[in-house]
Structures are given as structure tokens and as C-alpha cells.
Amino acid sequence: MRTKGVIDVSIVIINYNTFKMTCDCINSIYKNTTAVSFEIILVDNDSKECDADLFLKSFPELILIKSDSNVGFAKGNNLGIQKTTGKYILLLNSDTLLKNNAIKISFDYLESHPKAGVMSVGLVFPDGTHQSVCQRFPSIRYQLFEFLRLHKFVSKKAAGRILLGSFFNYDENIKSDWVWGTYFLFRKEILELLPNKKLNDDFFMYCEDMQWCCDFRKLGYEIHYCSESEVIHYSGGSSGNRHEMMKQNNRLFLKRNYSPLHRMFINSLNLLLKTQ
Description:
CATH architecture of the domain at 7-133 and 172-236: Alpha-Beta Complex
Strand content: 15-25%
Helix content: 25-40%
Number of helices: 9
Low-confidence stretches: none
CATH superfamily of the domain at 7-133 and 172-236: Spore Coat Polysaccharide Biosynthesis Protein SpsA, Chain A
CATH topology of the domain at 7-133 and 172-236: Spore Coat Polysaccharide Biosynthesis Protein SpsA, Chain A
Structural class: alpha/beta
Number of strands: 11
Mean pLDDT: 93
């Protein structure tokens, strides 16, 4: 909970028409989090479902920010970050439930890994199936490894460590290229080194976490995954609009971070992988 003095972790949650789910998420934080000081900043992205002030009736300690428009995930998080006072900032999706003292475990992990700029934890579906939180950046090397089926010539565990994503079994700690923004704990001090001293918020939704990790790595920080904690993530259903936005943002990410020739090879290998 929020205490006097320095806050260990500032938790930023975005709400958009998910009042009950967001309340469940916040309740899971209070229920499971001990031995670490924290504050919760809730950004309501102009929800129409109900009056956002209702959150304060159940959680009077909450810091509530009401946006006058739906500014998206990245910009919404930057709104919340402006109010944070913690040493670390946790961006937490509203459709999550903490299963254990994940925030304390994560806090201790970053405290003991100074090179790690950001870390995430095990995200699972309600049935316990792991989600692919650890990812590789688009890469000719890894795409060729998969296309040529070289993972068939090494152990399943070794292939998982090389390719990550759905190949990795998430039972051990590992360094990743990037991790999902669903549970995204990072050092607040990094913001001072970023353009405009904020996370990149040019992506309305999707791929922003990939860009954030790319920006952190350019500053010399590592991206880590800690297997000790599990958080239930009620991942949203697929939709045509969602997939189209993801494709557009992936193209934008490649354009911003890769040369034209590099992009051409990556896109060509992607097409070949889809035909396998």
C-alpha cells in the first residue's frame, strides 16, 4: 500500500469500459502484495460504462486520472506515469489477476539485476497455459533458424531458449529481446534518458511494448523474464480490426528500426514461414 516516504513500485492501470475486471485486478494487488510499498494510479480512458469516480468508493487510496478521450494504451500509460513517485513503475493490464506476491518478487528481482531495465513474469490463461510473453525482435537469423527447421536438430529446451515465443516453456528465468506490456516493470530512472522523458506513445495499441524494449536496449539495458511469479491474463479475443492494427504497427516498427534491405529480407522470410 501507499506509505510515507519513497514508494517502491508505482502501478499504472488503464481502464476502458472494464469496471468489474479492473476492480478484480486491483483487489488481487491488495490481496497478494506484501513487504513492498506501492501506489496505484488508474487512468480511465474516457469510459462510457460508468462514472470512473466509482473506483474511489471501493479504493479510496487510488490515484484516479480521467482522460477526456480514449488516447490509447501507450498515451494512457504516459498519463499515469506523470503521477508516479515510485522507484519502479509497473504497467499492468486491467485484465490480469495476481496469483502470488508477484510485485514483491519482481521488485527483488530488479534490485538484484542492475543491468535489467525491464522485466516481466509468467502470464497464464485461466487454465494455467502459459502465454508467449518473451519474444525475439524480427530477425533474419531467427527466421532462418525456424524456416530451415534447425530447431529439430537441438533439444526442445535449447530451441526454446533460442527462439523464445511459443517454443519456450517459461519454467526458467531468461533474457529476452522484448516482453509484453501486460506486466511491464521498469526502472523509472530510464525515463530521463528517453526522448521527451517518456515512453514512445506513437502506437495507439499493439507493438508499443516492442518499441519500448527496443529503446531500452539501445540505452544498454537488458530485458528479463522471471519465472517465479504467475499472473492470470484474460487475453482479449481476436478481431479483424485488432489484427489489421497489429500488422500496420509491425510495419511501422520495422520502418523505424530497420534498413529497407533488412525489412525486405524479413518480410520475405515471413511470407515463406507462413507457407510452410
